[in-house]
Design brief:
Distance between the termini: 71 Å
Structural class: alpha/beta
Radius of gyration: 27 Å
CATH topology of the largest domain: 2-enoyl-CoA Hydratase, Chain A, domain 1
Strand content: 15-25%
Number of strands: 16
Helix content: 25-40%
Number of domains: 3
Number of helices: 20
Largest sheet: 8 strands, mixed
Shape: elongated
């Protein structure tokens, strides 16, 4: 019998110690809260057997206050690489069982190390966040450690996908790193983000609030718009991360992965021909349009409960990844406000970063009027949408389903912003504004002088609608490429994207543009 080498036995002991994190008692406390450990989370996120850990034996190098009497292997974060659906990704998972997952100098070193490796290899970076923030015992070294991560988040933005999965608290400056990444996924009632916590707010302003109401999932999904996706449990959030990543390229020079479609690319849906009501003031659900034109079961809506007057999300068409931007006539008639502008802009730029073609479905009466909107900067926010679409070089296809009025027509991937193919349905109304508003302005004097202004207004409105509120006037002037039957939308878009697959659009040399943020 071969005697075991004591050095091998020591290695096995050290490995097991590293795997235990803060120890069995703290692991149990984590489980008692209904939370998984860092390693259990990685087991769910990554393909089985693919995780390879890096730097598991690192410990903190002392603290300013001399309070840390024990050194834990790994220093509160598990880092390494693995695969998701066969694609390599780099990951870090903060370990709440070690110093509450707080970030210090060596934990930052580990995170920065895998971020650098992800960039060098052109693969996605995923962070599983569960941290009490900066490690107070390390003083300013902990702040510098955060800054190292923030700088990489910013410099690597648009080069590799960065995804943050929030699985616990994220307080103080720790919230900035997720905010710099491409997608934030939160767990309902179990994760929250804020810069100043309830106790600080109470001390400074006298306001009383609990962590969930201050920065919980509902707040960031519906009110602030900071988060992009959410799930009821950790397991579902991690599986959602896997799904979302499948729509993105691994880096800015590759294309997103192709999935052979089970749905016929030539499929036509007859129900689309009757989906837009004859009365232009009657709403319809744009989700029904989206579900009928994309590969069945592939639509993943992004920020579904924020700025609900616009819909954004990833899908597949003919097996290829696409980004969908659409107005929602069921909410505020699909009007564009500040929240919708920011939502569209962020999504368009994310798609453009990672070579996801854009499909835009237009039905909007314009920008939301009002003193509050003007004073809050609707001009600046609306200009972001113009900037994003104009700057985007990915293939772009738009379909005007109904209203395309004024500035809303222009900003929503109109032809002269560089959109490659523009279609319209027969129900499309493309004009500076609606017929009633146009008649009131253009024919104001004529109406004032009329003996029967009501009848005259009705006549002029009908005349305006007949002349301008149809797609044929725009088609005659070259503003759209074709008028199609709604049922033809899916095969037409798929064919257009296939023709645009090798599109090359060079940009003028510059350091960077100056977006109206």
């Amino acid at each position: 019998m071969v005697q075991e080498d004591p050095r091998i036995l020591e290695l096995r002991t050290m490995r097991e110690k590293a795997r235990q994190g803060g120890g069995a008692d703290r692991i149990q406390k984590q489980h008692d809260k209904g939370k998984l450990t860092a390693r259990e989370r990685l087991d769910i996120l990554l393909d089985p057997g693919t995780f390879n850990e890096l730097e598991p034996y690192i410990t903190h190098q002392g603290d300013e206050l001399g309070l840390a009497s024990e050194h834990y292997l790994g220093d509160g974060v598990v880092t390494g690489y693995g695969q998701i659906d066969g694609r390599t990704v780099y990951v870090y998972a903060q370990d709440f069982t070690v110093y509450g997952g707080t970030l210090g100098e060596m934990q930052s070193h580990k995170i920065c190390r895998v971020m650098d490796l992800a960039l060098r290899n052109g693969v996605p970076m995923i962070g599983l966040i569960d941290s009490g923030g900066a490690r107070i015992q390390e003083g300013i070294r902990a702040l510098g450690a955060y800054a190292e991560i923030f700088r990489r988040n910013a410099q690597y933005s648009g080069v590799i996908p960065q995804i943050s999965v929030m699985l616990g608290p994220c307080a103080g400056g720790a919230a900035y790193s997720p905010a710099l990444t491409d997608l934030i996924i939160m767990v309902e009632r179990n994760s929250y983000m804020f810069l100043t916590g309830p106790e600080v707010i109470k001390a400074v302003t006298g306001e009383r609030i609990d962590p969930e109401s201050l920065g919980g999932t509902e707040v960031h999904m519906a009110v602030s718009g900071t988060a992009h996706l959410s799930a009821p449990t950790e397991e579902e959030a991690l599986l959602l991360c896997r799904r979302a990543l499948g729509y993105l390229a691994s880096n800015n020079v590759e294309n997103p992965p192709f999935t052979p479609p089970a749905d016929d690319p030539l499929r036509m849906d007859e129900e689309l021909n009757a989906i837009v009501p004859l009365d232009s003031s009657t709403p319809y659900d744009m989700h029904d349009v989206i579900e009928r034109i994309v590969d069945q079961g592939t639509f993943l809506e992004i920020q579904p409960v924020f700025a609900r007057n616009v819909i954004t999300g990833f899908a597949r068409m003919g097996g290829h990844s696409v980004g969908i931007v659409a107005q929602q006539p069921m909410v505020m008639a699909g009007v564009i406000d500040i929240g919708a502008s920011d939502k569209i802009t962020r999504f368009v730029r994310t798609c453009d970063c990672f070579n996801v073609p854009l499909v835009t479905l237009v039905d909007s009466p314009g920008f939301l009027p009002g003193i509050d909107q003007e004073h809050a900067g609707i001009i600046r926010h609306g200009a972001k949408v113009l900037y994003a679409y104009s700057e985007a070089t990915v293939p772009k296809v738009s379909v005007i389903t109904r209203k395309g009025y004024g500035g809303a027509y222009v900003v929503m991937s109109s032809k002269y912003l560089g959109t490659d193919v523009n279609y319209a349905w027969p129900s499309a109304e493309i004009a500076v504004m609606g017929a009633e508003g146009a008649v009131n302005i253009v024919y104001r004097r004529q109406l004032e002088q009329s003996t029967d202004p009501v009848a005259e207004r009705e006549r002029l409105v009908a005349e305006y609608r007949e002349k301008f509120n149809n797609p044929y006037y725009a088609a005659r002037n070259g503003y759209i490429d074709d008028i199609i039957e709604p049922r033809e939308t899916r095969p037409k878009i798929i064919a257009a994207l296939a023709a645009l697959r090798d599109k090359y659009a060079s940009a003028p040399p510059r350091k960077h543009g100056n977006m109206p943020v």
